[in-house]
Amino acid sequence: MNSKSNLDFGEHRWIIDIQRYLDEDTDPDESDSIKKISIFTIPKTIILTSPQHYAPQLVGLSPYHHFRIELRESEFIKIHTARRARKQHAGFKFHPLVVQLLKFDPIIRHCYDKQLRFDGETLAWMMAINSCFILQFLADQKWNSQLSRWGYDSVIRDIIMLENQIPLFLLKKTGDSLFQSSEDFLYTALMGFFEQISPFKRIKEQIEDHDILEIMDSDHILDFIYKLIVPKHEELARESTDKCDKKSISWLMPIRFIKKLVVSRPVKCIFKLFLRLIFSIPGLILFKQLEYIFFNEEKSENRDRDNMENRAVLMEEATIPSVTELWTVGVRFLAIDSGLSGIKFDGNTATLHLPVISLDINSEVVLSNLVAYESCITVGPLVLTRYIELINGLIDTWEDAKILREQGILLNHLRSDEEAAKLWNSMSELTQLTKLPFLDTVIQEVNEYYYQRRRRVRIGNLFDRKSFQSWQMIIMLIVVLMMIIVNSEWVLSLVALSKMK
Questions:
Q1: How far apart are CA 105 and CA 110, in angstroms?
Q2: Using CA atoms, how far apart are residues 208 and 206, in angstroms rounded to an integer?
Q3: Alpha helix locations (H) across 151-217?
Q4: What pTM value is reported for the model?
């Protein structure tokens, strides 16, 4: 019976919405009449793994969570905030605002990916109170003792969750009733909120390049943050990065040619025959280590590549050595201010350029919801997701996090480097493998440099251990040379005697 009543209500709601939308001669606001679906529900399979990342814990703001039983206690706080806003702003009344929001009922419903089973008046009052709460929170983020006891960081996490969003144009409408310069206030408040909760730091130049009007046309707060973090023109960023990559790749061309020549089949056969001939000479058996260097080392390298690719498939992360592994072969890390579009690898200086990222107790929720939102709205390459995969590949243990922290790339406000590593490793469960041309090029160049340098290091260590740092080896070489000289004189003497005969 209950399911039947819900069905009847849904059909009745649908008829009302369609009649209202078709019978209106003019749209309430031409710019808002074409709002696309921008607020999505997270699949239950993901929510069950980390419900605290996607379902609000204290404040239900969107129609999806407003009437949740476990969030009932927050209703008093929101209503109290609404009354406080009415007292602080002379002339502000809720009823005129609700009447205004009623005109946007079909547009509000179209922003959500599921049908909202509320009548128009309930939805309008819900949006008026919740938008007023958000504006008051942005205006006074220190707040009163009641909210501080309630949990300031918990409110931040709930405001940023994808399922808990409300359309940004509703914040503008409510702001027009509260503030004289609502557009300026909202932009300033949102920028302050972004700088506080965004994991990406020191990208002011990138922010200033954005068109304010375009940013303010965001669908909701999470979309506002996403547009500031992810480069606007992905193709232009890729092309500019490709140019840098072509410059950095030039240093590898001679090495690649020599490598191809050395490992070619004819050269291998000739070199093996030469080594076997040398090995037959007494005293030179020690040089058999060369056979390991030029032949067995390649097998070991291929085996390591396969193991890394298998690990990447299992762990769903980018195929790239860890920070510690790169550090051992001379790769250094440089913090940059240009955001995601500035990621590159400079082969001439063996430097991987990465944006500064800050981790605190809110970062995992922010990143998880940004990645979820990107997967819902993006048809092409997933820029942020690919970056998350890259960092997942770089950070395996606390030693990796420690190196990035010491290099100024990781601003760790968690309790330890181990917690930072665990955060990134847990993010691998929330992302899917994707491709992004300019980041894939960076990963490829890092891998090529790593394996080339590791071969050099192993060869150097081998000679350091077996020859040049061993006086016994030097003495052996001198003895061998003397034996060759003596044998040569003996052979020449035999030749001379034979000619005399």
A1: 9
A2: 6
A3: 152-160, 168-178, 182-197, 204-208, 212-216
A4: 0.76
